[in-house]
Amino acid sequence: MNLKSINFDWNKIKAFLIVAEEGSFSAAAKILNSTQSTMGRQIAALEEELEIVLFERVGRGIELTPTGIELLEEVRKMASAANQISLVAAGKKTEIEGNICISASESTSIFILPKILEKIKKKFPNITVEVITDNKSNDLLRREADIAIRHYRPQSGELVIRKVRDDKGYLYASKKYLKQLGQIKNSKDLSKANFIGFTENNEYINTFKKLGVELTSENFATLSGNQILHYELIKNGVGLGVLPEYVGSKEKKIMKALEKMPSIPMETWLVVHRELNTSVKIRTVFDFLANEIQDFK
Question: What does the pLDDT look like over 115-125, one tens digit per residue?
Answer without folding.
Answer: 999 999 999 99
